[in-house]
Write a structure and sequence with these properties.
The chain is α+β, with helices and mostly antiparallel strands. The chain folds into four domains: 140 residues, DD-peptidase/beta-lactamase superfamily (Beta-lactamase, 3-Layer(aba) Sandwich); 41 residues, no CATH class; 64 residues, Trypsin Inhibitor V, Chain A, CATH 3.30.10; 49 residues, Trypsin Inhibitor V, Chain A, CATH 3.30.10. It has five helices and 18 strands. The strands form seven sheets. The chain has a three-stranded antiparallel sheet with strand order 5-6-7, sandwiched between helices. The mean pLDDT is 92.
């Protein structure tokens, strides 16, 4: 967090190192004795925020210390910007702040376990604006800054543009005129999304019907309303046929009454018969005809009669599939 806030304080320029790039490391140099070579980790600034945005963020974060939750971090005669933070259960609290010359983060909590700090600040909860802010202030007051009167650069004027957008696939897109649930957001000039959403006229959402029976899936789509086009895929032996195993599109939106393609499993090599109540001899003949294998066990019941089976009847059959048959032993 300190490095991120230091980037804001540095006018949006993140300081990388020539040896490790965008990975914070406290390494000044690497000496290779055998090669008799010295490699300095030279600072390399990288602009990661648009010019003016860092100054605007700093201006906002100064108010956190002036009039907000970070007031306890205020240092007399020093310009400070920062942000408090607290987890919902008061298990962690922090303050990250910076001056024109220094960035510091303070975290308060228990390093070995999550323990809510509900009374540790004079009988009240520890938040980012309590102990972390006070510790931050104490530390900064003990640091000799080169110029305590230094001030942050004033933020420039950044034009704002109201834009209608909608969230699609986790990202904001421009409303193409058909989107439902779009929102009016204000963006800095040149920072609004450029790609339009692919919303459809009279758009409805595509429900996920994978795992449903084909009949239930078609009915669910019809309620949107959407049509269904069924294509079939051989069902794996031992699996239930007539079930939707895939769909296109998988989600998103379509115009009302558009079609969704459903991939439905089909038992192309027959179904496992119902052997319960049959004799073992009859079952073996049917198993041989279907190229299925038998795994026979006995249990109390009518002698020679199959009383249980697995997998159950109606499951997709296939060469080599083993069917467990439990035959009564007459006891």
């Amino acid at each position: 967090m300190t490095r991120a806030f230091a980037t804001i304080a540095n006018g949006g320029r993140r300081v990388d190192g020539s040896l490790f790039g965008d990975r914070p490391r406290v390494v000044e140099r690497v000496e290779r004795i055998r090669a008799r070579r010295l490699e300095e980790n030279v600072a390399q600034p990288t602009q990661v925020l648009v010019e003016g945005e860092a100054e605007l963020l700093t201006d906002i974060l100064q108010d956190v210390v002036r009039v907000g939750t970070g007031r306890r971090a205020a240092v007399s005669g020093v310009t400070v910007a920062g942000k408090t933070g607290t987890t919902d259960n008061y298990g962690d609290a922090w303050f990250v702040g910076y001056t024109p010359e220094l960035a510091v983060a303070v975290w308060v909590g228990y390093p070995d376990k999550l323990r809510p700090m509900t009374t540790e600040f004079g009988g009240t909860p520890v938040t980012g604006g309590t102990l972390p802010a006070l510790i931050w202030k104490e530390f900064v007051q003990g640091v000799d800054e080169e110029d305590e009167s230094a001030a942050f650069a004033q933020p420039p004027y950044l034009g704002a543009v109201p834009t209608w957008v909608v969230k699609r696939s986790g990202e904001w897109r421009l409303d193409n005129g058909y989107c439902r649930g779009s929102r009016l957001l204000v963006y800095f000039s040149g920072r609004a999304p450029e790609e339009a959403a692919d919303c459809k006229p009279n758009e409805v959402q595509v429900p996920v019907v994978v795992g449903m029976t084909a009949e239930s899936a078609v009915a669910r789509l019809a309620s949107q309303p959407l049509g269904a086009k069924l294509v079939f895929k051989p069902a794996r032996a031992g699996r239930r046929p007539g079930v939707v195993v895939d769909q296109f599109p998988k989600s998103g939106g379509l115009s009302a009454n558009d079609q969704v393609t459903l991939v439905v499993s089909k038992a192309v090599q027959g179904l496992v018969p119902n052997f319960v109540g049959s004799s073992l001899a009859d079952a073996n003949r049917e198993l041989e005809r279907l190229d299925l294998r038998a795994n026979v066990a006995t249990a109390p019941g009518p002698v020679g009669v199959i009383i249980r089976q697995s997998p159950r009847p109606g499951i997709a059959a296939g060469p080599g599939l083993t069917v467990r048959l439990v035959v009564g032993d007459g006891s």
